[in-house]
Design brief:
The protein is of the alpha/beta class and 890 residues long. The protein is 49% helix and 12% strand. It contains 36 helices and 26 strands. It starts with a strand and ends in a 7-residue tail after the last strand.
Length: 890
């Protein structure tokens, strides 16, 4: 039998400071609750305790405070954000059916020690879960200390190595050295090394105090003689009380099944969606599922489909290749979920339908525009079915995208079907890996595959009913149906088409970058005077701060920071940090793009196929992954060289269409600022116009440097830039930056009014909205932390602008896609739109059709907001260029 006793204060504090600033969408701080709960779940899962309890300090003064007034006096007051969370940590423990031990006038250490020794005497193995070294004095054959942050169990041998004495003498060690964490004084001038030497020479601290004359070193002898009372006090303060009147029996600490409904309720309240999947459980109770294993049965099932069809396609792994399809489930609005096995291959498998026959029956239904299709991550399903010769059509209800629109905070949310089912339906469903394990899906018995897959479509349809209602209630249904839903079709085609990459160009680039890195390495070693691992922050820190003696900046647990901002500051006084920055820049280009991209080319198509994500950003912007093509450098020599590798097929041409200053144009409309609106309506250079206003000169007197300042101010205002931020960006004084911002707002009163109104509305509503109704919660505005609130204010200013710009380019993508739909080359499967990077769209077109495509693209991109209800007061402008590769389009 093992008992785990958790030092609650230790881990709540550690969690709070490790995950600062975490809040739910209502602004309630949750970092300590989240961190502590994560640790608890990990401990329950990995250590499997037979019994468990958690202890907290009493708020009342203890005997130690009476003995020594300054005991823990140096500790700062508990932050209000942490104090608010403590009751909820205890409520979480109550939901887990874990006893909380708290005795008035005693610290958690004393309570834990008393219970630990009692349990030890009754034959239990005890693990005290703490990061506090005080508890090491309790270690014996049956009591250990476990630190879950490090994943280490400390035993007697560790204590001997760490302190030079066994656990029973740890208090003697602390009596000499003191303890900064608890403000235990010890003897000033005696460190750990000397303490170890003294305790090894004397059998006990009492002997040391009684015979200081035996100490060989005069300085140490005098320190002991002059501080005997302080040594005795320090030992008393560090000794843990093992006789606390704690009222609990060991049987009361036996591990009990948590109240999972109560746990789930708290997870929902605090929005711990990432933890919901850790709640144990099995498949949800449901009605009997069908298996369709004959063609006649499938035809009868399909004949009954009239209005709606829910789909789930199961593949061998996580991929989407057509030969990986093992089976699929279908469900109508009133029917029973049914699984269609296609390619299970285990021994003794029953009759299955041929894949080609099954899809020939399903094709008319799936391509029927009048029948709605429901599912989770429908973009994947659309791509799979296209490879089977089926073009999905009609209204799509993707519950993943719906959930994202309702709560677009991907950093706090998990949009998996498992999490959504748990959160919305209180149903714990099995994951793909729980069903498949290490084998492929083809080896999963059909009855298990049926239950898993049918559960997918059943839960998807239930979620659709909930989300479609919520979307209407929150005014988001139009955003979904007119923008996000049709975009699913667009993105699936773009992913399917991909981009051609010239690997010879990348190989040549890789060789050049290797030479550059080699030259930089030599300069780094010369400047540092030694060779070391440049990619090791620890080794770099040693060279910068110990060898060269540069002034260190931020301190981390692993040493002084060597992050970019620190190196940029150090570059002002020494050449080495500048070379380190060059090394990192070149190293990232080579490893992340030049060497990595060729490995990701699909051998079947010879092209690079990224995956576009609709649910990855809070503002509505698209992102891409595997690979991330939106982070490829735009400017500079090497950015241009990398983009030269993205080429058109023989006879084709690359076309780039880039919105000009779209966020500034959106700002002009949303703020109603007359000067900005006038500048865009007159189609003049808005940055030169702003520069002339800031510097009080005519437009033709504006220099490039003045325009650069104005451009930084214009875009900085959108992002809520501060005088300090502007001074850093421009390399000017804070006072100068303040003057620029002040002059800007004096001329642009509409912008200033917009900013004030945006922040006020965000505070009032708890969210901001784009021109098209997209919502972005701003819980940061309710934070007690001033820096977090300031960040929330910047979000309130920028999110509606950035989100509206994201909406505009999405609408343009859909409109262009729809116009190209009927073109003959598009019918054959070629999608001219191949990439979206923020405000830019990239197309690949036969050269002879370039002019026609450019005309369509320009009309649709510039015409997005020319009709009500989204008519805006400034024209949208698109800059279009073309070339044999992406770089030629810049």
């Amino acid at each position: 039998m093992n008992l785990y006793l958790i030092d609650g204060n230790s881990y709540v504090y550690r969690a709070f400071y490790a995950i600062r600033g975490l809040t739910n969408s209502r602004g309630r701080p949750t970092s300590a609750i989240f961190g502590f709960t994560s640790m608890l779940l990990k401990l329950l899962r990995e250590r499997k305790p037979d019994a468990i309890a958690v202890s907290f300090d009493s708020p009342l003064l203890t005997e130690r405070h009476i003995l020594f007034e300054d005991y823990k006096a140096h500790r700062p007051e508990t932050p209000n954000e942490l104090r608010q969370q403590m009751p909820f940590v205890k409520e979480m423990l109550s939901a887990f059916n874990i006893n909380v031990l708290e005795v008035s006038g005693y610290e958690a250490d004393d309570v834990l020690a008393t219970v630990a020794e009692k349990a030890s005497r009754q034959g239990m193995d005890v693990f005290i879960v703490t990061g506090d070294k005080d508890m090491l004095q309790l270690i014996d054959d049956s009591i250990k200390v476990y630190d879950p942050m490090k994943g280490v169990v400390f035993e007697k041998e560790y204590v001997k190595e760490r302190f030079g004495v066994f656990p029973e003498r740890v208090t003697e060690f602390m009596a000499l050295t003191g303890d900064a964490a608890d403000n235990i004084p010890g003897v000033k001038g005696i460190g750990e090394k000397i303490a170890k030497e003294l305790l090894s020479e004397f059998k006990s601290l009492d002997e040391l105090i009684a015979h200081p004359e035996r100490i060989k070193k005069q300085r140490i002898r005098k320190l002991i003689e002059d501080n005997i009372d302080l040594i005795k006090l320090s030992r008393r303060l560090s000794e843990i009380d093992r006789f606390v009147p704690v009222d609990i029996e060991l049987k009361d600490m036996s591990l009990r099944e948590p109240d999972w409904q109560a746990v789930l309720r708290l997870f929902k309240e605090f929005e711990f969606t990432s933890l919901m999947s850790l709640i144990p459980g099995g498949p949800s109770p449901s009605r009997q599922y069908e298996t369709i294993s004959t063609l006649s049965h499938l035809k009868d099932f399909v004949d009954a489909i009239k209005k709606e069809l829910a789909l789930s396609i199961e593949t061998q792994g996580k991929g989407t290749e057509p030969d990986e399809i093992i089976g699929l489930s279908v469900l109508t609005e009133k029917g029973t979920p049914a699984y269609i096995p296609l390619m299970h291959s285990y021994e003794g498998v029953i009759e299955q339908i041929k894949k080609e026959d099954a899809f020939s029956v399903l094709k008319p239904i799936i391509e029927n525009r009048a029948i709605e299709k429901t599912g989770h991550d429908l973009k994947r399903i659309v791509r799979i079915l296209k490879k089977q010769g089926i073009r999905v059509q009609g209204v799509l209800y993707d519950v993943m995208v719906c959930a994202y629109l309702l709560n677009p905070l991907p950093m706090l949310r998990d949009y998996s079907l498992e999490s959504l089912s748990l959160e919305e339906l209180s149903i714990k469903k099995r994951t793909f890996m729980e069903v498949v394990g290490k084998k492929g899906f083809d080896n999963v018995p059909i009855h298990l595959a049926r239950d898993y897959s049918c559960e997918n479509v059943e839960l998807s349809l239930k979620l659709k009913e909930i989300f479609s209602k919520k979307l209407k209630e929150e005014g988001l249904d139009n955003l979904y149906l007119k923008i996000e839903m049709p975009l699913i079709y667009v993105l699936s085609e773009m992913e399917e088409t991909g981009l051609r990459v010239d690997t010879k160009i990348l190989k040549s680039l890789s060789e050049e970058l290797s030479e550059e890195l080699s030259a930089i390495k030599k300069r780094i070693y010369f400047l540092s005077g030694e060779e070391f691992n440049i990619n090791s922050p620890r080794q770099l820190g040693r060279v910068l701060f110990d060898v060269l003696g540069l002034k260190p900046g931020k301190k981390k647990k692993t040493g002084y920071s060597t992050e970019m901002s620190v190196l940029e500051e150090l570059s002002k006084t020494h050449e080495l940090p500048k070379e380190i920055l060059n090394w990192r820049s070149f190293f990232k280009l080579k490893s992340t793009y030049v060497d990595a991209l060729p490995l990701l080319i699909n051998p079947a198509t010879g092209r690079l196929h990224t995956s576009f994500e609709q649910t990855a950003t809070a503002t509505g912007r698209l992102s891409s992954k595997e690979p991330n093509l939106q982070n490829i450098p735009v400017r500079g020599h090497w950015g241009k060289r990398i983009r030269e590798a993205f080429v058109a097929e023989e006879g084709n041409i690359i076309i780039s269409a880039d919105y000009s200053q779209i966020e500034l144009r959106v700002m002009a409309h949303m703020s109603g600022d007359s000067l900005l609106i006038s500048a865009f309506q007159r189609d003049i250079d808005v940055h030169s116009e702003t520069a002339s206003q800031i510097f009080g000169i005519s437009s033709n007197e504006v220099t490039e440097d003045m325009r650069r300042v104005a451009k930084t101010v214009n875009f900085g205002i959108i992002y809520g830039i501060t005088p300090f931020g502007l001074s850093e960006a421009l390399g000017i004084s804070k006072e100068e930056a303040e003057i620029y911002i002040k002059q800007y707002f004096e001329r642009h009163s509409g912008v200033r009014a917009y900013i004030e109104k945006a922040i006020d509305k965000a505070r009032e509503n708890g969210y901001v909205k784009t021109l098209f109704g997209r919502k972005r919660p701003v819980p940061e505005l309710k934070s007690k932390n001033a820096l977090t609130r300031q960040f929330g204010e910047r979000l309130a200013i920028n999110a509606p602008i950035q989100g509206t710009a994201a909406d505009i380019i999405k609408i343009a993508m859909v409109k262009i896609f729809n116009r190209l739909w009927d073109l003959e080359r598009f019918k054959r499967g070629h999608c001219p739109l191949i990439l979206q990077v923020h405000d830019e769209l990239l197309f690949e077109s036969p050269e002879e059709q370039k002019d026609g495509l450019i005309k369509i693209v320009k009309e649709e991109m510039e015409g997005v907001c020319k009709m009500k209800p989204y008519l805006i007061s400034v024209p949208l402008k698109v800059e279009i260029s073309s070339g044999r590769n992406w770089a030629e389009c810049q």
